[in-house]
Amino acid sequence: TSLCMNLTLPISMYFHAVPREDAFERGPLLNVTIELGTNIFYAPGVVDVRKPHGSIDIASIIVPVLVGIIVILIIIMFLVWRNRGKKDNQPDSVAYTANQSNNYHGNSTRNNERFPLISSTSISDQLSPQILQEMSTVLISRSKLVVDRDNIIGKGHFGTVYHGEYITTQISKLNGNPINRKVAIKTLSRIEDTKAVEKFLQEGLMMSDFDHENVLTLIGISMDDDGSPMVVLPYMMHGDLLQFIRKPTNNPTVKDLIGFGLQACKGMNYLASHRFVHRDLAARNCMLDETYVVKVADFGLARDIYEKEYYKPHERGGGMPIKWMALESLQQQTFTIKTDVWSFGILLWELLTRGVTPYPDVDAFDILHYILDGRRLRQPQYCPDALYELMLSCWHPSPDTRPDFKTLVRDMEKIYGEIYGVHYPGKAGEMWLDVNYINVQDVHIYPSQVRTSESRSTGGSMVHEVF
């Protein structure tokens, strides 16, 4: 016994035990034993290795989250790569970033006027490189435009033209402030697809190369805060020519009306010299500025504002200005400078009747047969004989026999110089403002190209063939 000694264990002992990997399978209660050396054995009790109620398997959460993050990163990298590829093909000068500019007047419902069917923020990304290149030369910063959305110049199914101001780089010598230029801002109401946007922009870009006193020119193109395009044009104080000559409070003389026609003729001569075919020359598509200078234009909204002037055949595209179209345009859908000459003759007739719709007693469906029969518009009461003869030359059945615009300018200047300022009788020429004016007499100027038997039996079918 002298070799033995008393062994005293501490009252309190703390152990940190890590269960083996198979502990949860062998559980839930496992015996705990403590061995010190080879002679001391201690059994303090059991340990509960069951998972607490409501515990969460961390691994089952972390793994799906990591996989999701990786997938999202891959998608983002792909989109960035694709976007960079697109931008490499686009001029940097037309890159557009939407901002929250407040350069507009009007209530907060302005965005309700547009109903885009494609994402407006992606419009510039979807335009063709050619359109983007042309836009880069006429692009106007949105911050330079003030749009008055409560002041509408014209509105149709597909577009609205607003009053606005263009803040130029010119500085006033009086107060040192930037000079604001009054402009007309044309917008799209419905953005149906990229083709519609490109057509809208092409109509504006087409005017960027024009430089003539009697042709409306483009100021620039801008992108609105929501990404939709805007075409910026000079503001025309007196609106379109048709509206002006129909207004009872205006009182132009015969010389004034012929002068308007002469200015339009000069503008068309300029366009013809650049091989430009208008296709829709009419009083509604000529504008008047603050000094009564005529600007040949295609304001784009004429088809909406003067919708009844355009014939819309069934199962066909947009309306056609049937009563202004030349014979070959009606027959073969051919448009040339000589078909514009025909339309110019109709424009002169509009002027001398103060805005009467051509062939008011003839249905648009019957116009082709009417013209083939050799009939033409009757001479207006106050129209000089020389001017009516000029109109008739514009309506010759053979395009080659019609005068060109250079000849028309010369003849118009001669007629204009021989006319004195003769006013219409009555108050503001009220006798000419009745748009229900009827051609009392048929005027057979040219030989009929329709046989009597054909006109009776197949005349209707001929019109059907055109449309």
Query: CATH first level of the largest domain: which class?
Result: Mainly Alpha
Q: Give start-end ranges of low-pLDDT stretches.
A: 90-102, 104-120, 423-440, 452-467
Tell me the distance between the termini.
131 Å
Over the alpha carbons, how many angstroms does the gyration radius reach? 40 Å
What structural category arises from helix and sheet content?
alpha+beta
User: Count of helices?
Assistant: 15
CATH superfamily of the largest domain: Transferase(Phosphotransferase) domain 1
Assigned CATH architecture of the largest domain: Orthogonal Bundle
Calculate the mean pLDDT score and round it: 77
Examine the coordinates and then state which fold CATH places here, giving the name of the CATH topology of the largest domain: Transferase(Phosphotransferase), domain 1
Work out the strand percent: 15-25%
SSE string = HEEHEHHEEEHEEHHEEHHHHEHHEHH
Global morphology: elongated
The structural domain count equals 2
Major beta-sheet overview: 6 strands, mixed
According to DSSP, the number of beta strands is 12
Percent of residues in helical segments?
25-40%
Which strand order does the major sheet show? 3-4-5-6-8-7
Subcellular location: Membrane
Binding site for ATP: 186, 284
Region (Disordered): 92-113
Membrane topology: Single-pass type I membrane protein
